[in-house]
Amino acid sequence: MALCLALICLFFVTPGLALYDFEGIPLDIASQGEVAGSIYSAGTYGLTEPPVACSFTLPGEPVWAEVYTGVWGGTEKYSGTAEISINSLKIFKYSLYGEQDMNENVYCTGHGVYWISQDATDLLHSGENRVVVNTSRGESGSRMDGRVYAVFVVAAVGDNSGYITQYWIAEGNENLHGEGWSGSNPTVHDTSSYTFSGADLTGMQSAELTTVLLAGTRYQPDYMTFNSNDLGQPETDTSHYPEGATDIGDEICFDAEGGSGTESRYVDVESFDVTDYVKDVNTVVFERGRDSNGDGVIDPSSAISEGEDYIHPCLAVLSVKKKKASLLQDMGIAGITTANMYAGATGTLTAEVRNYGENTGSQAVVAFYVDGEKIGTATADTGSSGVGYAVIEWAATGGEHEISAKLESPADSVSSNDEYSLACNIEDLPDLSLKVSSPVSAESGEAAVKQSPSFFMIPVLGAAGAAAVWGRRKKPGKIMAATLVCMLVLCPVLVQPSFAAGLEYREYVLPVEVLNEGGAVDPGVSLTVYLDGEKAAYTTLEDGIDGGDSESVEISIFTTPGSHKVRIVVDEEGSVDELDEGNNSFEAVYEFP
What range(s) does the DUF3344 domain occupy (predicted)? Predict the structure, then answer.
């Protein structure tokens, strides 16, 4: 299969855009670099009525700082506001829209769990600082719960300790959950991870990993590993935990490595000594639980729970403290992403530039090459975060190409990371469509009967704008795709879900074939199933699809016997630019046996 060897994006979202995703927004780099000092953190811990104040002292001036705020919406259906005041110098106000949220630097997932990221580099200072967070809880017209999980401040601060600290801050909002927490269909999201790259261990004295988890519950075990090593001490209470289990998200902060910690309802901040485990490339993995009894299921509801119902990893901070003569500037190119790379289209190339050394806020000039020929330069502003993006357009031509990005300036101490290349094969636009067979009872094998269209006349109400995305937020090179698509909104009249008394949910198998009559499509294309207007299942195609080929999948759905409207959409996010997007959905009403 001819596939681009990097993830291909077809359209960019406006930089800074974040969109709600029930399953979660994976952690991604927010800041990295080195400081002649240390990483400082402070916070308030535990679900609390607003306003919430966090007062703390910094030993020096920050070269980078961020204020994070966790807010509980109560449900993704409600909206409200949050205000963040930093040292009374500036107030940032966010309108929180739940499942419709598109705010800059707001990560909303699950049933209304918000994680807000606010740059505070120029607003914090050496000495006393104060952050106050308020929400619309209790205000007229606001239905959002509005309680505050935590206010958490992270800052890279210069000091006279004689140490240099290399650091990475990854932010997001993953929703790890078991069955029954995603609408009417029991989807599962058990693990998530993030990889920190480019560690310089010369003169290393120690390494520490700090994490923030929201919405965890005591007596429901969860786990974390760092480079495949389990973190935290196993629980000794075998009346509540499986043997050897850890409970990082136990609603007590700073107790995972021993000690009494701090009571903190639905919030868990932990710091782990990872000196013995750290390498040049480091991966942290968050696990909702483990299958302790070997039955193939992580069951949170058994007498001795095997895992969390749900838990949200929102932040991971890795810091490596070193004895080093002086700070050196070291910028490198961490990767290249492409967008709209089809024959005859104007494609976009994005190079991600990271600062692995002293955080100088420098701009980097990046040169782009296709098959060894320079096509232009672009500037990346790394700012105080140490992460920036250089973007350039290219009139894509068909065939195999090598795309490269080279750092032209500034000159730095390490040249080995100044260039990045990828190979890709550029083809014609794809054209995805669906072929759907009748749902079949998983128990009896009996097929559902497709009903005549005359039975369920569905009037067209009009067109509505739908925003869709696979990636996220304030890093254009990491945002996979999005477009605003005009789509028909249909009213399913005369079709009523069969929720009669006495009917039980049953499992049905829905056979779906995804066809591609155009150019090749990379792995990761989504399939979304709606049942009676509610999202019932979501999956992605692990393999790409060549032109003229297809891929078949069987999707499990759970509902009651009777008449149900089924709607299936391929690439609902709009991540694939196509010849014809009008054939991406299928809709029918079936009588389920």
Answer: 22-321
